[in-house]
Write a structure and sequence with these properties.
Layout lengths: L2 H20 L30 H12 L5 H19 L6 H21 L2 H11 L9 H7 L38 H13 L10 H17 L15 E5 L2 H23 L5 H4 L3 E6 L4 H9 L3 E5 L9 H13 L3 E8 L11 H10 L3 E5 L24 E4 L1 H4 L7 E5 L2 H7 L28 H5 L4 E3 L8 E5 L3 H14 L5 E5 L2 E6 L8 H22 L30
Parallel strand pairs: 2-3, 2-4, 4-5, 5-6
Antiparallel strand pairs: 1-7, 6-7, 8-9, 9-11, 10-11
Length: 570
Amino acid sequence: MNAEDFRKYGRKMVDYIADYLENIREREVVHKVTPGYLKKRLPDEAPENPEDFEEVFKDIEKFIMPGRTRTLDYFIILTYLVLSFCEEHRPSTTVFQRTRFWAALAALLQVISSACSSASASRLQDFLGCPLFLLPCGFQACNAGWWFPQGKVEAPFLGTRCVMVTHWHSPYFHGYFAAGNTYPSILGDMLSDAIGCIGFSWAASPACTELEVITTDWLGKMLALPEEFLHCGPGNGGGVIQSTASETTFLCLLAARNKIVDKIKKENPDIREKDILPRLVGYCTDQGNSSVHRSALLGAVKMHKLESDENLSLRGDTLKEAIERDKNDGLIPFFLCASLGTTGTCAFDNLEEIGPICEAEHIWMHIDAAYAGSAFVCPEYRHYMKGIQYAETFSVNPHKWMLINFDLSVMWIKNSSYLVDAFNVDPIYLRHTNEGKVPDYRHCQLAKEFEKLILDDGRFEITSKTVMGLVCFRLKKGNKLTELLLSEILEDGRIYMIPALCRDVYFLRLAVVAERTTSEDIRFSFEVIKTCADKVLRSSGDFKEDEPVFVDIDLSRKKPTQPSKIKTHK
């Protein structure tokens, strides 16, 4: 697909999306298929040759989005009844009468289908087996048995064209807390996918990181969160975007676990972590989301479910009794997941009662407000938030009420260092000169090959075997000059690279990640590296050119002569 094809089919896709959303009320909301339905319809092997997008679009209509709209169903049933009548009385009608009937029926079909969406009209033609404008000739096909097998009319019940998608955005979808959706959100996803940056650090994408900081502060202020939760607040707090509230709960539990383990080990230097973990216990209400218990299982800690009151709210006395009981049993309470708007009943825990207890017992209180949190934009709902100042973390899902496409969950934390310390992965290739000035998120790396040009220049050496698309190289002169080379490259600014350190060998990594990168781009990057190397080597004095030396760093050796310092992140 080239740019022109993208423009062409992009317009068609936008039209399809708009048509789908504007007419979603007409669609049956719930699927009518059984597990394994799609496997029977698709080949076992992936296609070896590309298909035209028109064919792909037909497959979407055929295998993913079939199912008739309500208007179309009424229309087809009417057509079926008329056809059944004609089939039954075919011998008593003349050719002239049947011709007039089909012409009248075709006109009726055109009128009703014009009131339907284009997708509905297409499905109508699929059911009838021919384009609408050919219906006046339909009597000939009917007489010949072409339209219906053996000339028999079969009832068009929904089993013949099953609904395969549950339409979460339908006004008639009343099941789960539905995900949001708006045209601006869809357009935003399109632009984000096109830019395709991975914002795992400020240096990797400054706009990505800074926009996240600003917008999470905007949202935090809209929700009237305490200043301690904001990047612009007085402390070390701030918001960060996650995928789901379940993921957020898990992260908070691990951060709380790391905090309490560190505290205990500092107070008792001889105690081992494996002796602490079995004693840790967390709490949640019996109305809480099941993800809390899954988080505890993954975090290898106990989670006790506490009984809620008659209003399905967790109260202070219940929590206090549980803490005292567990402490008497030798357990260490460390975490509480409170709920504001539970999944099952939209119940609210009493933060004003349980918050002070958590503070006194040094228990990390996380507030899960995935659904109801969006309502706190409205002042009349903020009474549910009383006691939020006792929380360490707070999360809400804008992809529910705030009309943002799934997935988007935002969490705020009072002290971000607890989260950073719990998940600290700091290899040299993720470092940059602005560390500490802005927060960094997510880790990702991809690469392409570039080895040959390096091998053709006698001033460089390959430091490890080139695997897939990543090339690791350095100046033969050693670590210091290679470090100066990187500084020169970054100062030049035409390309961007990062270093790594393995067994005291400092080297540069060149990774090609853009889909449109060509060999010409690679040569340009190499010319930049060569120019910068010239400057560094000239400033360092004489340098004797040698043949490229391949340094085979065997990472599989159990006892290396020098300890490895490289850290990797998958």
